[in-house]
């Protein structure tokens, strides 16, 4: 009985694996995956954003000190 359950479990896992492969490579998902691949490139450069933030804070402090 245990051998039968192991065999059934193996077949179920294999079918799920094949289903994931089909889902991942289906044409309908291509647009979503292409968009996700470009997310990193579309975001602002974190170094540049931090430098701009620090510059704004420095200018704000300078303005407050002059007042």
**Beta-strand proportion:** under 5%
Helical residue percent band: over 70%
Sequence stretches where pLDDT stays below 50 over 5 or more residues: none
The number of helical segments is 3
Structural class: mainly alpha
How is this structure best described in words?
This protein has one domain. The protein is 85% helix and 0% strand. The protein has three helices and no strands. The termini are far apart.
Task: Give a topology summary.
Layout: H1 2-24, H2 30-42, H3 46-66
Concise overview:
With 67 residues, the protein is mostly helical. The chain is 85% helix and 0% strand.
List keywords for this structure.
67 residues, mainly alpha, 3 helices, 85% helix
